[in-house]
Amino acid sequence: SVAQGRRHARYVSRVRTKATSARSSLGNFAAVRQGFIDSVGNTPLIRLNKVSQATGCEIYGKAEFLNPGGSVKDRAALYIIKDAEERGLLRPGGVIVEGTAGNTGIGLALVANAKGYKTVIVIPDTQSQEKKDMLRIAGATLIEVPAVPYKNLNNYVKYSGRLAESIAKTHPGGAIWGNQFDNTANRKAHYETTGPEIWAQTGGKVDGFVCAIGTGGTLAGVGQYLKEKNPAVRIGMADPMGAAMYSYYATGVLQSSGSSISEGIGQGRVTANLQGWGVPTREGGSVDFWCQVSDEEALPLIYDLLKEEGLCMGGSTGINIGGAVKLAQELGPGHTIVTVLCDLGTRYQGKIFNVDFLKSKGLPYPQWMEAGYLNPR
Ligand code: PMP
């Protein structure tokens, strides 16, 4: 209607006035991010109050769930695509193929949308429905494959590598394989962004950094940067119970036993992202603390964080916080430790916030969850 049109015109002129004054007072819209890609990174550090109080340390979580694609993997996705562009491997309409537990795929699909590429994502069928749904919403072509070990030719990583090769042969825009495990553009993202951010945000007063290994990109990239700034910073690795990296760090032998419901972490081999820095060497100077965290330890941390501090986190974050607590106990009170809040718990609603699922796995859940589940408010 005419009235609506006038109201709209008034609205637009008001917004324009505001924008003009913002421009004059802020110079160049300092706070505005220019689209998805410009919004990756620069996440806050959040003090984790309960575990800080319990350990007498200052434990902070790097809020990677606030990246625009919702996880720590947005950083790696952006660097992998930028790297391929710089090498001249991607042309408009080109395809990015990747094997992923989900988050890297989500990051790649969204960066691809912002830059005019397509994505084909290969995912083990055991990963959460919420991540698969998000990949489809983002427009990725999703291929679900049975979850089989890396040594199997049909493992999702190897499958995605072969698929990339065959698409590249025929697709006019070209195709690349993200190859996040062995593509060190992943580690570089954390060396150039996450690490420097943590250093700046703590004013260099960081005594320890700890996280789990999926590809190893976060651990090696952040660890290497912080150690270069201050060799005394302790870099810790938290392994979900049963994964092979703990045994590798402790004994030099990759041996897995047991299992975890956490997703996106729990590596069975020394990836290229870990080689050269992320595994302990005789000379030292690399990762210098390692521990295992069970689901029984990690889940209560997640539930308390939601119920008492309002932060709803995914399972790998529980492993990370468990590792931060163990490093805090090792260092003693008065230290500052940073870990990673990888993604939101809503990405695993049907699993770690589902009483039936937890019961079926024989895992602990708080009484309030059952009450909330049966009697939704
Ligand atoms: N947590 C979640 C939820 C993830 O998806 C990933 C990535 N696979 C990680 C942690 C581990 O990060 P990175 O690959 O850098 O080791």
UniProtKB/TrEMBL annotation:
Domain Tryptophan synthase beta chain-like PALP intervals: 39-343
Subcellular location: Mitochondrion
An example Gene Ontology molecular-function term: cysteine synthase activity
Cofactors (names): pyridoxal 5'-phosphate
Keyword annotations of the record: Amino-acid biosynthesis, Mitochondrion, Pyridoxal phosphate, Transferase, Transit peptide
EC number: 2.5.1.47
GO CC, any one term: mitochondrion
Catalysed reactions, semicolon-separated: O-succinyl-L-serine + hydrogen sulfide = L-cysteine + succinate; O-acetyl-L-serine + hydrogen sulfide = L-cysteine + acetate
Pathway it works in: Amino-acid biosynthesis; L-cysteine biosynthesis; L-cysteine from L-serine: step 2/2
Membrane-spanning ranges: none
Keyword Mitochondrion: yes
One BP annotation, GO: cysteine biosynthetic process from serine
Main localisation: mitochondrion
Role this protein plays: Catalyzes the conversion of O-succinyl-L-serine into cysteine, the last step in the cysteine biosynthesis pathway. Can also use O-acetyl-L-serine.
Family membership noted in the UniProt record: Belongs to the cysteine synthase/cystathionine beta-synthase family.
Protein known as: Cysteine synthase 1
